[in-house]
Specification:
Elements: H1 4-28, H2 31-42, E1 46-47, H3 48-55, H4 59-71, E2 75-80, E3 83-88, H5 93-105
Antiparallel strand pairs: 1-3, 2-3
Helix pairs in contact: 2-4, 3-4
Amino acid sequence: MLTKKQIIDIKSEIGTTTTTFPLVFQALGDSGRFNIFRLLMEHHDICVTDVANVFGITVSAASQQLRVLERLGLVIKMRMGQMVCYEINEENVITKQLVKLLKESNK
C-alpha cells in the first residue's frame, strides 16, 4: 500500500502530463486537424490560405483549426506581411515525439 507521501509524489508527477496529453490527443483526434498537422510536418511555412486550398475548406475554417493547434503549442504562427503562416513547433517536447512517431509509422 502506498504511503501518503508516495501518493502526493505520484499526484504531482502525473498532474502536468494528464492536463496536456488529453488535450493534444483530442485536438489530433479530429481528422482535419490531424491532416493539417501532417501537412505542416512535410512542408514548412504553410500559410492559412494554402491550408484552405489544399483541403478545400474556407480560410476561416483553416484558421480556426490552426488556432487550436497553436494554443496547444504544436505549431507556431508567423506573420509575413498580411499573410499568416504556420510551422511545426520544434521546441515543444510533445510535438517532437509526435513527429518522430508519425515519421516512423510511415516507414
